[in-house]
Each structure stands twice: as structure tokens, then as C-alpha cells.
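[RESIDUES AND BACKBONE]
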Amino acid sequence: MKAYAWFMLLCVALVGCRQPDLLEGLDQQQANEVVAVLQRNNIGITKQDNGKSGYSVKVARVDFPAAVDLLSLYSLPSRPRLEVAELFPADSLVASPRAEKARLYSALEQRLEQSLRLLEGVVSARVHVSYDLDAGDGGRKASPVHLSALAVHERDVEPGLLISDIKRLLKNSFAALEYEHISVVLSRRAPIQHVAPTAVEPQGDGLWMGAAILVTILGLLAAAGWLYPWWVKQGRA
């Protein structure tokens, strides 16, 4: 029994060395965004292609809490890129005009959020459109469109310039949108509670070190499997 206990302890120790999944089911763009942010903050990652189930991202257990904080800080993973064909598939049931209009405006909000994230210094963004679902019914006049945007930005960004860029982008997204109907709220990104990356000279023996560790683990497993019957006999003797 003592030999069996040692064998199980070895297996548990080897399993404990396994990197936990930080995220899974990501598309390639989402995975790349996550990898870029974590690597910029000195966190080693492993990105794995799981075929139809998407990509998964793994980190060392010691870096797991910091990685979760960074993903929350940068609002990652981002929403999958929205395509018009996904909103109105050919085989979908015909919805009511109100439902179609609500779906269209929701899609516009998401597309605008994706565009705002492309602006330099923007970490994450949310856009809200005040739309009138009953406009046009019974000759009812449509209400003016109002837009509000919330953007989290990097700490070294000039807020005034960023507000100007955001308003200009939103203004040109709608034909009859007035500047006074656009509201932009900025929030500065919280400071990162993690060690910044440091420049390290590339070392050619890193790959050999990883291979040596893998060979050692496989050797221990093989030795344990070979010695297990002998341990069992000794325990019974």
C-alpha cells in the first residue's frame, strides 16, 4: 500500500505541473488579442488550436490571478466580429418589423464598439443608441438619434483629442446625427498590478531545457510503471 501511495503521489505531482486553461473556445482574433496583452505584461502563455472548438489559452498557475486581472482590465476576450450575414441568415424565420429594427440597431452598436477599439489608446468601448422602434408607424415622426459612448483609454492618452476623434467617428456613422446629441464619457485605465516586461537576451538553450524537462518527466513515468509491480509485491511481502 505504501508503494501504491507513492505512485499516486507522483501522478498527482505531475498533473499539478500542467498549465490550467485560462480561456477556451476563442476565435483566432480573440486569442491573438489575449496573447498580445499577456505577453506585453510579461506573462508566458501557450496558445493551442483545438480545431472546431476554437483556440484555448493557457498560463502557468503562478500567473493565473494576474492574467485574470489583465483580461478584466482590458475587457478581453472581445466580442466576436459581427457580420451582417450572421444577423439575417437566409434560413431564419421572418421576424416582426420591430424585432428586425431592434436587431439592426444592436448590430450597429456592436460595430461602432469594434471601430472605437481601433482608435489609438482605446482599451475598451461601449456604445448605446437611443432608437425609436415605433418611428414611421401611422405616419409618426421619427425622434432624433442620440448616441452615448463610454471608452476606457490608456493612461498616457490626451482625453480632449480622444473625445474629438470619437465624436467625429460617431457623427459620420449616421446621416442625421447632430454633435449635441453625442455624449462621450472617458475612463482612464486602472494601473496594472504586475511586473512590467524586461528586455532579456535571447537564449538558445531554452528549447533544450524544455526538452530535458519533458524527457525527465517521461523517464519518471516509465520508471514508475516498470517498478510498480515490484513495489506491489514488496508491499504484500
The first helix runs from residue 2 to 16. Residues 17-89 form a domain with the Alpha-Beta Plaits fold (CATH 3.30.70.1530). Confidence is low (pLDDT under 50) at residues 1-7, 12-16.
